[in-house]
Structure formats: structure tokens, C-alpha cells
Amino acid sequence: RAWLFLSDAAPLRESFPEHYHEMLDEGLRMPERDRAEIEIDLHRTFPNHPLFGGFRDADDAAAEPPGRAALRRVLLAFAAHNQSGGYCQALNFIAAMILLVTELQEEPAFWLLVAMCEIVPDFYSQYMTGIRVEQNL
């Protein structure tokens, strides 16, 4: 919980209590090509971590890891929220780390991701303009 307050994500969450769920619904309705970008990165995200890929029992092999399912939902909601930039490839690792810190609590993870990306605007946008500017300094 401390991360929500330290990042200023808590006031955002309190001001817009239904926003995560609204954005998730919107993300689930995004065009297939936009959702496909996220799907590709899900399998690349910490594939050896038990919550995101890892090794499971033979009985559990077909079940999707809980972290991967949570990551999909957080990234879809964020892509819908971030209408100017959508989804950026590096976000999968950042969102996964945030999910680990929040113990897979999706809504706090979403708000932390929003707060982090607003602190460094254009770093995690489609063209990564912020990162490119920083590299040239």
C-alpha cells in the first residue's frame, strides 16, 4: 500500500474508483491487432517465474499462470487508458514487477503503472520519444 501513496497513485485511484474496470472493459474490446501485441509479450515476460510462466505440475500444465492472466488485464486496461500512446513493448516487464510488488492485485498495479508513466511522459509511448530525447542528451 505504501507504493500507492509514495507514487501519488492513491489520490488518482480514489478520484476515479471505477476507472480500472472501465478501461479493462474497453481494452477487451480493442481491435485484435492491438490485443495481439500484448499477447505476444505475455509469454516473454519472466517465463521462468512461477506466476508468469514457470514450471507447473503436469495436472496444471494447461492452466494459465495467475500472473500472466493478471498482467494481460493490467496491460489491456493501461492501453485503453493511454489513448495517445497505447501499449509499448517495454511495459510488460514494468507491469509484471509492479504486480509482484502488489501481490497480483491488479487495480493497484494499474494505478502504479499509470503514475509511473505520467512521471516520465513519452518514455513508454508508441515511439518512445522521451527515451530517444534522453539518449541524445
Question: Please, could you describe this protein's structure?
Answer:
The chain has 137 residues and is mainly alpha-helical. Helix content is 60%, strand content 0%. The chain is built from eight helices and no strands. α2 (9-15) packs across α7 (106-119), α5 (66-81) packs across α6 (91-101) and α6 (91-101) crosses α7 (106-119). The chain is globular. The model has no long low-confidence stretch (mean pLDDT 84).
Shape type: globular
Instruction: Please give the alpha-carbon distance between the first and last residues.
Output: 35 Å
Radius of gyration from CA coordinates: 15 Å
- Helix amount: 55-70%
- Estimate the strand proportion: under 5%
User: How many distinct helices?
Assistant: 8
| Stretches with pLDDT under 50, minimum 5 residues | none
Q: Identify the quaternary structure here.
A: single chain
Overall SS class? mainly alpha
List how many beta strands DSSP finds: 0
Largest sheet: none
Mean pLDDT: 84
Element order: H for helix, E for strand: HHHHHHHH
Concise synopsis of the structure shown:
The protein has helices at 2-6, 9-15, 19-28, 32-42, 66-81, 91-101, 106-119, 129-136. By secondary structure, it is mainly α.
Could you give the topology of this structure?
Elements: H1 2-6, H2 9-15, H3 19-28, H4 32-42, H5 66-81, H6 91-101, H7 106-119, H8 129-136
Can you tag this structure with a few keywords?
single chain, mainly alpha
